[in-house]
Amino acid sequence: SYLSMNVQAQFSYDLQGHRGSRGIMPENTIPSMIKALDLGATTLELDLAITKDGEVIVSHEPWMNPVICLDPQGNEIPDQDKSHNIFQMSFEEVIQYDCGSKFHSGFPQQVKFHVTKPRLSDLIDAVEKYVEDFNLPRPNYNIEIKSMADGDGIFHPNPKDFSDKVLALLLSKISPERFNVQSFDFRVLQYIHDAYPGITLAMLVDNASKYEEQLQELGFKPRIYSPYFVALTKEIVAALHENGMKVIPWTVNTSEQMGKLLDMKVDGIITDYPNLAPRR
Ligand code: G3P
Ligand code: CA
């Protein structure tokens, strides 16, 4: 069983489980979130797509990625095939795909079992029930809206409509202090900043050395600046802090690197391996 023993470590920083606990469980699934909670994650990071019948689905790609999913017959999907497009599927079709049984060479320790992509609403219900049943601290949610055109014929919905749909769902289920929206798509951040001023936003970027230009382009200071960790320095962290932002880098997968970033005074760490997070 994937339900483990609720062994909780306490962390003084925001330990964010990337796609749940991707190093251990099939990514962006309910078991991946439950495992992250057991490992002491304070925030659950996840990505969203949306079906043609308007269901918000937890998935990194808006298609059934051949690296992680089997087709409805249980067969492999050819490499690079993006034709199993979630935006063009109903939810009933989405749950025909097993996205947990296939060996993932990037995460060889992942436990393998049949699991389907969940709806965001079902994932939140399962997490909230789990923490209540086992008297665990309530986690926060770091919700990524993936709305940038990816090429190869994948149609992406209008970022405003997508954001409205996601926020209506989130606000109906959890209080706004318990979630933030993150995006690489500045249109999403700008829209939510204007239309939902109370919502915490995290700006996703690749290269922290360009933070001044990035913030200028965005046009406002988000509450959280979330760069790829490699170019981050303690000077950049300090400058962002002076400007009132938190700094939460992604995706940091060794204890040593997590320790270096915590020494730079980052506010949180996004990791596929919450089990490797330093106790501080
Ligand atoms: O939370 C940030 C991180 O998830 C961004 O990268 O590609 O894993 O969504 P990606
Ligand atoms: Ca993400």
Protein model, in words:
The chain is an alpha/beta fold and 280 residues long. It has one domain (15-220): Phosphatidylinositol (PI) phosphodiesterase (TIM Barrel, Alpha-Beta Barrel). Helices cover 28% and strands 15% of the residues. The chain is built from 8 helices and 9 strands. Strands 1, 2, 3, 4, 5, 6, 7, 8 and 9 form a 9-stranded mixed sheet that branches. Helix 4 (159-173) links the parallel strand 4 (140-145) and strand 5. Helix 1 (30-38) runs parallel beside helix 3. The longest helix is centred in the middle third of the chain and has 15 residues, at 159-173. The chain starts with 13 loop residues before the first strand and ends in a 9-residue tail after the last strand. The protein binds SN-glycerol-3-phosphate and calcium ion. SN-glycerol-3-phosphate (G3P) is lined by residues 18, 45, 47, 60, 144, 182, 204, 226, 250-251, 270.
Features:
TIM Barrel; nine-stranded mixed beta sheet; 28% helix; binds SN-glycerol-3-phosphate; binds calcium ion
In short:
28% of the residues lie in helices and 15% in strands. The chain is an alpha/beta fold.
Set out the fold topology.
Layout: E1 14-17, H1 30-38, E2 43-50, E3 56-58, H2 91-94, H3 120-133, E4 140-145, H4 159-173, E5 179-183, H5 186-195, E6 200-205, H6 211-218, E7 224-227, H7 234-242, E8 246-247, H8 255-263, E9 268-271
Parallel strand pairs: 1-2, 1-9, 2-4, 4-5, 5-6, 6-7, 7-8
Antiparallel strand pairs: 2-3
Helix pairs in contact: 1-3
This protein binds SN-glycerol-3-phosphate (G3P) and calcium ion (CA).
The site of calcium ion has 3 residues, from strand 2.
Keywords: Signal
Protein name: Glycerophosphodiester phosphodiesterase family protein
InterPro entries: GP_PDE_dom, PLC-like_Pdiesterase_TIM-brl
